[in-house]
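Q: Predict the assembly, please.
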Amino acid sequence: MMLILVGLVPAAFAVNMANDLALEATVSDMRDLAATVTPMAQGTKIRLDDAIAELTRFAKKGGTPTGKTCAAIAVSCQTIADKLDQIPSMATVKREQRVELRTEIYLVAEAIGKLIHGDKVLATDAMQIAGGADNPAKLIADPGTVKALKKDKEELDKIVKYIPNWVKIVVAIALGLGTMIGWKRIVVTVGEKIGKSHLTYAQGASAELMAAATIGLADFMGLPVSTTHVLSSGIAGSMAANKSGLQRDTLISILMAWVLTLPVCIFLGATLFSVGLYLTLHIFGVQ
Amino acid sequence: MVLWGEPVSIATGILLIVALFLSLSFEFVNGFHDTANAVATVIYTHTLKPTYAVVWSGCWNLLGVLWSSGAVAYSIVALLPVELVLHSGSGAGFAMIFALLISAIIWNVGTWYLGLPASSSHTMIGAIMGVGVANAMIGGNGWLAGINWHKAGEVGAALLLSPLVGFIGAGSLLLILKVLVRRKDLYEAPDKDSRPPLWIRGVLMLTCTLVSFFHGSNDGQRGWA
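A: Predicted assembly structure:
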């Protein structure tokens, strides 16, 4: 939803206009960061336009950092600091400059995020000043730097990755209404069509306990499990344990749906994106 | 037309309405797909009447969305091609947003219509990868470059792991329960009007509430971004 709003009404949504942003702190942090990164660039100089291109390249999947990336971060941080320094609040940024500012801040935040790996920081060839130019980038533990970088990223994210309250509420209502209206079909499958006999009290409790436990597994242990999958299999498991019998046809359909979800959605996404792109470029003539 | 204090063209206004409608429809469909996780057992054990169960779950979903910080919201954006995210107002950016939403809605509505429980996270990840694949191909990088192998691996692992966890976990729980609580009525199909013992109802109400709340706080955030 935010992507849509930022895309169509950029002047109103590109940057967070809330008044509680600590802009002064961000300015000094950006200057500090620029000062830290500049020596790592080992004299590489870069213009702002090239810096944006370099950061975009780095932010893409598989992009690796180089000395040029450090120079790009330094230049962008300096630019952001200079821009924020002149304004009392976000609302006073000129409309046409908001998108530009968003792009700069977004890219620096992404670049910082990509340099941090857990509690280590990815050092580039140029960053390992003593190590010579040909060393591959490697991870070094540097708690002080990591902490500072994380704080910088948080501040920047507050400006470009924000969500207004009304967006939260509208989305919450849509989800809640959907919940209340379309529940029946799948509930019937789960409740009646997996096992051969009616769900007993004990089976319901066992299956639902496992489903709730997966939230813990997924959120706190980082295991990639799906609540939907666990619940349906849980019902099947409890049916089997109670020797109630299973409905093979339903189980096969459900398994098919699970296995097909990813490939079918990749296909749909790719096709629709290509069609959409063709339409916008050739029919509507939009760039 | 003036929106949020900004003058916009009629075309932009219409596009905005269509796009926002689609994004809310996605959320709506997502809602009716995943409720079963929370309410199916509650309904079939006669812990709550269907209407109460669904409204209860819906409210907790809503609270979950409102309670969450938004930290997860943008993690889904991080999976998208960055050049499209930065230019979400461009033709390509809109092709991306529409492709994502429509793909997810098609698969969710299709599986829902057939009554098949399927993971909406996997649906979203698939659609995102599809856009990535097409984008990589158009950029001349070969379609393989668009696949996020880390995420694909997670989905694969979930496909293997979740049925095992569910099947063995719930089966074992039931067997343990059978040894610990020797009450025949727990293990037979319940009468039409009878309600389960208070502690079973308690367990089911609690798990239903938790599942609803955390569904809202995790999945609900995706629509924000």
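Chain A touches chain B through 124 residues (CB under 8 Å). Residues 125-136 of chain A have pLDDT under 50 and may be disordered.
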